[in-house]
UniProtKB/TrEMBL annotation:
Keywords: Oxidoreductase. It holds the Pfam family adh_short. InterPro entries: NAD(P)-bd_dom_sf (IPR036291), SDR_fam (IPR002347), Sec_Metab_Biosynth_Oxidored (IPR052228). This is Uncharacterized protein. SUPFAM superfamilies: NAD(P)-binding Rossmann-fold domains. The keyword Transcription does not apply. Gene3D superfamilies: NAD(P)-binding Rossmann-like Domain.
Length: 338
């Protein structure tokens, strides 16, 4: 059974007692789970300064209007970039660095799954893997100096925490056509994501890193699964059934903000506890969860909000030095787009 929603909502509402203005960057919040989390954050944070990455500033304008209606005291700024390109991901980080000296929350939910096959970007990379892995990692890496200056910084990646799998070790980027498949691109994005975030966590013990699987959530992701006739059939026949068993965007957003702020997923007392310090309360925090890699890694979280244990997959990968190999591959990819 999932963590009781009332517990989640009570915790989220405590954000209102955090009087220091929180600074957040949302990547992937023009839709779906990210948008749900963004609205929940705007509603509860006192004077937030929020940056939202959007592919099209015009279509994202209505989101800012909605956020202003939820919380007129917040400041909201759209960064018009397409992070299916690593260069754009780098520009996003530079934009925030030019404006802010610290960052409390980096929320990453950008990405898609396409049954249409591999889509190469102008950087020669698979767009689904770039949005779900390379660009998420690049932004996290470049913003570490700002994150390290925040009181209780959090990086939350919504993808497939706890669902890591085996890697095509001689082709981590799945560049060979015979190696690429929808499933493998998803497994590589999730597994490399966990291993790379574990490395960042080890080097940045002040920052809480969360990689979560959100469960099935009723978002536009399913409508975009395929184009053409296959897409129509999916949208008419399959997606309505999926939606019957899916969580709402609002609830997924509420649960995601909980991941980003509660003690349960924090190396310290969590963002909600910052308010408790000011008000003299206890913070009402739940017990802290265990991190991966024997407590040195990240918070891997399943759809119910509990810590996921996938050591049977991850431990052998670490034994094979895959963390270093994934990082070397990733650094080479980052260098290749320079
Ligand atoms: N929904 C689920 O049941 C579920 C389950 C497990 C994992 N996930 C993962 O969770 C993450 C969020 O999913 P969601 O359901 O919230 O998806 P969503 O509603 O489709 O939102 C995805 C976000 O990513 C952006 N995006 C999509 N394709 C892009 C591209 N080619 N280039 C740049 N940006 C792109 C979208 O921007 P635009 O608004 O501009 O399109 C949007 O901001 C995804 O990585 C998904 O794989 C979802």
């Amino acid at each position: 059974m999932a963590i009781d929603l009332q517990t989640v909502l009570n915790s989220n509402s405590r954000l209102a007692s955090v009087k220091t203005p929180l600074v957040a960057l949302f990547v992937g919040a023009t839709s779906g789970i990210g948008l749900g989390a963004l609205k929940e954050f705007a509603q509860h944070a006192t004077d937030p300064r929020v940056y939202i990455v959007a592919r099209n500033v015009k279509t994202a304008g209505s989101i800012v209007d909605e956020l202003r209606a939820l919380n007129p005291r917040g400041q909201y700024e759209i960064i018009e970039k397409n992070v299916s390109l690593i260069k754009d991901a780098e520009a996003v980080a530079e934009f925030v660095k030019a404006k802010e000296s610290s960052l409390d929350l980096l929320f990453l939910s950008v990405g898609f799954v396409s049954l249409d096959g591999r889509q190469d970007t102008t950087e020669g990379l698979d767009a689904s893997m770039t949005t779900r892995y390379y660009s998420r990692l690049r932004i996290s890496q470049l913003l570490l100096p700002l994150l390290n200056r925040a009181t209780s910084p959090h990086v939350v990646s919504i993808l497939a925490g706890g669902m890591e799998g085996s890697l095509q070790e001689d082709d981590l980027g799945l560049r060979q056509a015979r190696n690429w498949s929808v499933a493998r691109a998803s497994v590589h994005s999730a597994t490399m994501g966990t291993l790379a975030l574990e490395k960042l966590a080890a080097e940045n013990p002040h920052v809480s890193f969360v990689h979560a699987y959100p469960g099935m959530v009723s978002t536009p992701l399913f409508d975009r699964l395929a184009s053409g006739v296959a897409g129509l059939l999916l949208r008419w026949l399959v997606v309505p059934v999926i939606r019957l068993f899916s969580r709402s965007v609002a609830e997924a957003g509420q649960r995601s903000l909980f991941l980003a702020t509660s003690t349960r997923y924090s190396v310290d007392d969590g963002i909600v506890a910052l308010g408790a310090v000011q008000t003299g309360g206890s913070g009402g925090a739940l017990q802290r969860g265990a991190r991966s890699n024997g407590g040195k890694g990240i918070f891997l979280v399943n759809a119910s909000g509990y810590i996921a244990d996938n050591e049977k997959v991850l431990a052998p990968l670490r034994m094979k030095d895959m963390e270093r190999k994934v990082w070397e591959h990733t650094a080479a990819v980052f260098n290749s787009v320079r």
